[in-house]
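Example record

One chain of 178 residues, shown exactly as stored in the release files.
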Amino acid sequence: MKRKLSTEATAAWIRLMRVPSRVLDCVEQDLKKAGYPPLAWYDALLELSRAPSGELRPVELERQMLIPQYSTSRLIDKLVDEGLAARRECKIDKRGQFVEITEAGRDLQKRMWSAYSAAIDKHVGSKLSDAEAARLCGLLDRLGCSCSDAKADAKADAKADSKNETKAAPARDSVPAR
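Predicted structure tokens for this chain:
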């Protein structure tokens, strides 16, 4: 017997569609007010800094950031133009290339974290108790958004950060460990 879609499930769906974009818009505005570039720049720089050698193929960066290829290409162009990343030819496959984070990119990513973490706290952390945040993670886990994976990523980042003495944050889909 097929279950009928409830009004509550429909209302939850609508909120799941609206809330993330609204919160991201608020975070983007806070970064802009602080004089920083868009959040996508932070995410790209974070993913590059997480890579063991500080470099990724564009397709790997795209996969980790979950943004469309055309956006990844434009984003890489902007990061390279600003001196935050560099393109490097793949020695094995001459047609392939890597995108490598520069020291300026590492510096910007670390500096952006102060404004980014404040925005996360303002728009999420201050509105939910730790227990509510944990409950939300549990509910999202049931929908296929594994917060436990995000927590594992955050713990790995914290461990790497303590070795590198950086204050880098997890990506926007991760749960901050700090």
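Notes: Residues 18-128 form a domain with the Arc Repressor Mutant, subunit A fold (CATH 1.10.10.10).
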